[in-house]
Amino acid sequence: MTQTWHVTYEIFRKKGDQSTHYDRFEMKVDPDEYVLDGIERIWAFHDRSLVFSHACHHSTCGACGMVVNGVEKLTCITPIRSVTKDGGVIRVQPMRNFPVISDLSVDMTVFYQRMESVGHQPVVSVGFEDSKGKLDSEDDLLRLSDCIECGLCISACPIALTTPAYLGPAVLAGAQQSGDLNPCVLELVDSENGAWRCHSAYECTEVCPSHVDPAWRIMDLRKKLVARRIKKFFGVK
Amino acid sequence: MRDGFDVTPRSGEGAGLWFLKILTGFLVIIVLIIHLIVNHLIVEGGLLTYADVVRYYQNPIIPIMEIAFLIFVVTHALMGLRSVLLDLHPSNKVLKLINYGLVVLGVGSIAYGTWLILVIVGRG
Amino acid sequence: MAEHPQKPANLIKWFDPRNKSLGSWAFILNRITGLGLTLYLFLHLIMLGQLARGPEAYDGFIALVKNPIFLVGELLVIAAAFIHGLNGIRIGITSFGIAGGKQKQLFIGLMTVAVIAIVYFAIRMFTH
Question: What is the ipTM of this complex?
């Protein structure tokens, strides 16, 4: 049985240098639809100038991350029921800590570059246990790695909020996942804007839609970096 | 900042300072536990008069412990303060001033505290 | 970078606990108690300067801090010290990769200890 809810979308709008504002759209929705479905309908039937990023609609591409009622959500898998009630408001904002291109769409170029620089593997062998970092080289079947590079963790991170120079949770988790701490990667992650900048707020793990557990990975990375330094100090190769 | 990578080297908080913060924090906890036990459980009636304090400081372990405590606490506090200040985006120039300021403040307060402890010891 | 996303107003947003999870509360609490304890440290050092000025100055100072207002202040310092110290243990051990997945339980456990300790000291101070 389908239900019908009346909800109000409050959408953040930003066009070029014009001042930002929120547009309100009264919508009839099924509470089991996803937040992104409503945004698409607003674009289709109410305002064709609305800019937002989306692609796969099944939490694989990581394009549709937004801030919904103050919390980072992957909107394609976030049921409307989980963020509001009948007659309630859904306030949609672009992700924090990224430059806004227009409306709900943000520029993630720097983030993708960093992910590549630390050697994060977006595609891994099916034998690869993401959380243990073990690779079974016998297997030639591939799957996507846990991190879908949606950027939600960076948006939620209180340290990324204070400085764009901080690499951010996903990037540090990417370095931990790849496990290849070559000198180039080390220079990035074993630095003031790398693993040591984290202040253990654990917001990244809280918002991650894909069970990457970036906070745990940052801590694990620290453990590895400390172990490396101790070995180096005692001259062990 | 170019392509998302910081190109100007800064003396922010790297592994060394981070580790020092954790280490001094740990040492503060250890000394504080000893301090609480000695001050409140072993010394009868606490240290509420001048004479008590002076007598307390005659045991040579006490001033040594207090000076160590002073060094750990001041180091930990000022490094913590620096972490907070780093989040306010100081430019390299301002950061340099902050560094000098904190070092002067730290060395100054450790010297002052040590002097104070030695004065008390000398009054015994 | 197209545009610096940080506006000056953003710089103290670490202070804003709205829509945040437990970890952020721990982070905010740790910072506030840390800053408070730093302030206390320097006040304490300045106040102890009374010791150098001789017995009368120090005993007069002790009489002053037996005032209830100072007792409340002292209790705040004790509370901040317990919260910051116990939370510091959590940050320290999780930072070395120990109990990283259990940080919430660890936080709740340690803060329970902190609350018990604070209540104990409060009762002790105000019944004497």
Answer: 0.85
Tokens (6 digits) for B29 = 């906890």
Domain final position from A79, A106, A133: A106
- Gyration radius of chain C's alpha carbons: 19
* Beta bridge partners of residue A129, listed in sequence order: A134
C4 to A164: CB separation less than 8 angstroms, yes or no = yes
CB-CB under 8 Å, C95 with A99: no
B49: closest chain C residue by CA: C59
pLDDT in tens, A191-226: 888 999 999 999 999 999 998 999 999 999 998 998
Number of domains chain B is built from? 1
**How many Cα atoms within 13 Å fall on the side-chain side of residue C51?**
29
Task: Tell me the pLDDT tens digit for each residue of A32-65.
Answer: 999 999 999 999 999 999 999 999 999 999 999 9
Q: What is the pTM of this model?
A: 0.87
| HSE-CB of A210 using CA atoms within 13 angstroms | 24
Q: Which chains touch A (3 or more CB pairs under 8 A)?
A: B, C
B23: containing domain: 15-122
Question: Are the beta carbons of A99 and C3 separated by less than 8 Å?
Answer: yes
**Residue A110 touches chain C, beta carbons under 8 Å:** yes
Residue B101 covered by a domain: yes
Kindly report the CATH number assigned to the domain that includes residue A58: 3.10.20.30
Q: Is A191's Cβ below 8 Å from some Cβ in B?
A: yes
